[in-house]
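Possible regression after last week's pipeline update?

I re-ran a chain I had predicted before the update to compare outputs. Posting the input and the new output here so someone can diff against the archived version. Not blocking, just want to make sure nothing changed silently.
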Amino acid sequence: MKINGDFSKRVVEFSDDIPWVASPMKGVERRPLDRLGEEVARATTVVRFAPGSHFSEHVHTGGEEFFVLAGVFQDEHGDFPAGSYIRNPPESKHTPASEPGCTILVKLWQFDLADRTHVRVDTNKLGRVNDAQRQGVAVSPLFQDERENVRMERWQAGASHPVEAEGGAEIFVLEGSITEAGEQLPKHAWLRVPIGYDLNITAGENGAKLWIKSGHLPFVTAPHGA
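New output (post-update):
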């Protein structure tokens, strides 16, 4: 299965407009943003857990990265409220659940398979640094290695600047709105731009809070056998 599988093209999805699709696990539904593969896939997805739903314990052979958009995600490692950023590296395992229900942005099979770094960050408690080169932009780093840079950025209303996309980039609008290439992207819109794209964005009248990942698209592969 391929969904937005041409990584040489700019792609926008308004995730709130995508119909929910049932997953193999009762009470868990998905909105696909991109996908290479079937049930085992390199995928970017918005996932919703109904209250009281859960998955069986499983291993993330290719790693799992997610951001909690609403509610509380739970597993044996803790309770993670909205605003939590988690990286479960390749070969890690857990038993996901949500007693109150939650919605998360999930990325699967997008790690260096040798990565063993766990990350668990509550961005509600995370500081931010004003970007000296981009007035009106404050950055909260989440993760960085030789393959990618993941961060949360807060843009003041009307701020307009380039975003580094030499290695490609993805933006998920957590709050507010932005405009890119003449297109307005509201809350929960997702933008993916290819390697070398000239990415410039302008924050809307209420500013914007953005989840951004850049530099990672040279490493796109589908899971073996997918």
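Follow-up from reviewer: compared with the archived run. The chain has a mean pLDDT of 94. Marking as no regression found.
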